[in-house]
User: Which sequence fits this backbone?
C-alpha cells in the first residue's frame, strides 16, 4: 500500500515459505497472487523508454505472469471460481499493460464469464470497465468501420460498468470509468460528452483525494506508533542482550575461576598421591625389612632351641644323677 515494494516482497516471500512448510495450499495461492501484484506494480511504474529500463520492465511483467499462472493453476485444482476470476483478470491486466490486447481481452472475458456465473457484482463491474477501456485503447490502431465498431463496444461496456459503479457505491471504479468514457468521447470527437464525464471524474477524484489524505494521515500516525513501539522493543531487546552478555561474561569468569581451582586441586592431589605412593613404598620396604629381621630372629631362636634339645639329650637329668648317687651310696654302706 505504501509502495515499498522491496519490503512487501520480503514479507510476502516469508509468508509463502511458511505456507509451503505447513502445506497450506490456500495460503500459498494467496501469496503467489500477492507477489504477482507487486511485480506488476513495479513494472507499471517504469516508463517504456527502451534500453535497460525496458528490459527491467519486461522482466518484472514476466515474473508477475509467472506467479499469476502458478496461482491460477492452484485455483483450478482447488475449484475456487472466485479466485480464478480475479487471477484471470490480473493476467489480462498484465497483457493489457504490455500492449498485447488480444490476449488481454481473452482473459478479461474468461474472468467476466466466471464472475457472471457467480453473480459477483463487484467483479463483474471491474471486468466490464477493463474491457471497455481496452476497446478504447484498441481504437488507436484501427480505422474506418473497425474503429467505429470498437468505439460502440467500448461505450457499451463502460456505460454498463458506470451504472454498476453507482449501484454498488464504488467511487474509485466510478472515477476510472468516467475518465475512460471522457477519453472515448474525445477520441470520437464528442467533446461535450467528453467534458461532462471529465468534470465528473475530477469531482470524484477530489473526493477520493480527501479520503486518501485522511488515510495517509492515519497511516502516518500508525507508522509513528509502530516505529515508537519498534524503537522501544529494540531498546528492550538491546537491554536484554546487554544483560545476557554480562551474565555470559560472569559465567565465563566463574568458569575460569572454577577451572583454575580445579587445576590447583588436581596439582595438590598429584603431590599428595606422590607422597602417599612414596610413603607406601617406604612402608613396604620397612615391612619387608621387619619380616626379614623376624625371620632371622626365628632362625636364631630355632637354632638355640635345637641346641638345647641336643644338650638335653646328651646330658643326664638331675633326677637320674640323684638316683645314681643314692644307689652308689647305698652300695658303699652295704660293703
Assistant:
Amino acid at each position: 500500500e505504501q509502495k515499498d515494494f522491496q519490503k512487501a516482497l520480503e514479507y510476502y516471500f516469508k509468508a509463502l515459505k511458511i505456507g509451503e512448510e505447513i502445506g497450506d495450499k490456500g495460503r500459498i495461492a494467496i501469496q503467489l497472487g500477492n507477489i504477482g501484484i507487486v511485480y506488476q506494480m513495479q513494472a507499471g511504474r517504469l516508463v517504456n523508454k527502451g534500453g535497460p529500463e525496458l528490459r527491467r520492465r519486461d522482466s518484472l511483467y514476466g515474473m508477475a505472469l509467472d506467479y499469476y499462472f502458478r496461482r491460477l493453476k492452484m485455483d483450478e485444482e482447488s475449484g475456487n471460481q472466485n479466485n480464478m476470476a480475479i487471477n484471470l483478470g490480473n493476467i489480462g491486466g498484465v497483457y493489457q499493460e504490455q500492449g498485447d490486447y488480444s490476449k488481454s481481452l481473452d482473459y478479461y472475458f474468461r474472468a467476466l464469464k466466471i464472475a457472471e456465473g457467480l453473480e459477483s457484482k463487484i467483479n463483474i463491474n471491474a471486468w466490464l470497465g477493463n474491457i471497455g477501456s481496452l476497446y478504447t485503447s484498441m481504437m488507436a490502431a484501427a480505422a474506418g468501420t473497425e474503429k467505429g465498431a470498437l468505439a460502440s463496444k467500448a461505450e457499451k461496456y463502460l456505460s454498463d460498468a458506470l451504472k454498476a459503479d453507482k449501484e454498488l457505491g464504488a467511487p474509485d471504479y466510478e472515477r476510472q470509468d468516467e475518465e475512460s468514457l471522457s477519453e472515448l468521447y474525445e477520441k470520437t470527437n464528442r467533446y461535450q460528452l467528453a467534458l461532462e464525464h471529465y468534470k465528473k471524474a475530477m469531482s470524484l477524484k477530489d473526493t477520493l483525494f480527501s479520503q486518501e489524505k485522511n488515510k495517509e494521515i492515519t497511516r502516518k500516525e500508525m507508522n509513528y506508533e509502530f516505529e515508537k513501539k519498534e524503537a522501544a522493543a529494540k531498546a528492550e531487546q538491546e537491554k536484554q542482550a546487554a544483560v545476557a552478555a554480562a551474565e555470559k561474561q560472569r559465567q565465563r569468569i566463574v568458569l575460569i575461576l572454577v577451572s583454575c581451582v580445579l587445576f590447583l586441586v588436581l596439582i595438590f592431589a598429584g603431590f599428595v598421591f606422590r607422597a602417599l605412593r612414596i610413603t607406601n613404598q617406604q612402608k613396604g620396604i620397612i615391612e619387608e625389612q621387619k619380616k626379614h629381621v623376624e625371620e632371622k630372629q626365628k632362625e636364631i631362636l630355632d637354632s638355640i632351641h635345637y641346641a638345647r634339645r641336643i644338650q638335653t639329650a646328651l646330658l643326664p637329668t638331675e633326677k637320674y644323677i640323684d638316683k645314681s648317687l643314692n644307689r652308689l651310696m647305698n652300695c658303699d654302706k652295704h660293703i
User: Anything to note?
Assistant: The radius of gyration is 55 Å. The CA atoms of residues 49 and 63 lie 20 Å apart.
